[in-house]
Amino acid sequence: MHRFNPTKQSPNPMDTHHKALDVNLDPRRYGTFAEIGAGQEVVRWFFRVGGGAGTIAKSMSAYDMKVSDAIYGRASRYVCRERLQAMLDYEHRLNLDRLRDVRGDTTAFFAFADTVSARNFHGTNECHGWMGIKFQAHPRDDDSQIIIHVRMLDEEAALQQEALGIVGVNLVHGAFALHHEPELLVDSLLDGLSTSRIEIDMIEFSGIAFRHVDNRLMSLKLVELGLSGAAMFASNGEVLQPSEFFYRKPILVERGSFRPVCNVNLDMLRGANEKFSQLPSVAGKEVVQVMEITMNNLKAAGEIDLRDFLARADVMAACGMPVLISDYFRYFRLAAYLSRYTKESIAITMGAGSLMELFDEQYYTSLEGGILESFGRLFKNDLKIYCYPLLDPQTGQLVTCENLEVKPELSKLYHYLLDRGEINAVESYDPDCLKIFSREVLRMIKNGDPSWETMVPQPVAEVIKTKNYFDYQPA
């Protein structure tokens, strides 16, 4: 069974100086560095270590917007994926057009580019950037490409620029030395840095060298290694960058194990969205709905089982849902993460059982302010919780947020949040879905009980049967 090995490290890691020199001394590598914003921080390393003439065909920086537009075409924003891709395509094509006939048999060409917004003078901007490399793994080879999105966490612009230079060298060196081992390549991106300085929340591999790479697994790897607190991908497997996907949109999240996605999961989202969309702050706007899996859930049985992860990803994809993988076990950390990317309303939908757990004080013992601190941070940006009812299988009682019982000492806090409208009931629900529990559906799948197929969306059933997910046994 294939599992991630979290202790796996890149062999003989080199420092930034030696990585840049290693690239410069490789006679096959020759290309362009194009950097917008934060100075020529990456190419500076290749000039500084010596031997740059054998590697650098051209180095350029287009700070002026009109100059940048004249070279690469207009873009909606200057620090965005669209601009980065235009830079990579343009510079790589120029290298091939100008140099392929002269030295194409012995040279593997590349174009490195980044477009970055480092800390401004007033410290008021989002410090982030897009960085990528388009390259030939071997002379005359078809193109391959790696794109990453970084968030710079240092307080000073000079430190951000330094960190940017290091991660850029790591990316260039990794593309050449580790393209055949993408897991190690990801692992090497923060060599010489720490997660307190740089966060990488998106990575995408494409092209011939990465034709067997599943970018969903690479997204998982980012979170697994702690390079990012969360990563996202769309239902078609395309990697998503949160700040662009969530930009100016209301967000509705459902957290779960999704082993598998059942009818009740979709009914929960539908019912919550129906009520969430009626809020004055949300009415008439496009609500982004996301299914979230936490690393805590994925590691429930120990190490992450990649086939199990892909099974969950595929059944969510069958429902057309984007997937968020997060290391935010506590809901207030998830709320803080989402509020980083949108000023619009945010909502979380959960079952009554999960709402009971939210009021379990054992989860907040490490917080100085305990459960009060947790709820203060959770609801500070007017986040809403939508509670889906629970049908108690023993008593037959319908548990809703109105009759849910918490510890007596927390009862006033609970009803305060209820009265303020922070916690809301999902009133529109399908009674047939109340009898569906994913653990029971999973048991039926493993035991060959065909009635499970009526409890999941039809596309989900097809995926499970076709790929034999969740130990599927035909009846």
From TrEMBL:
SUPFAM superfamilies linked to this entry: Nucleotidylyl transferase
Protein name as it appears in the record: Nicotinate-nucleotide adenylyltransferase
Species in which this protein is naturally found: Rhodopirellula maiorica SM1
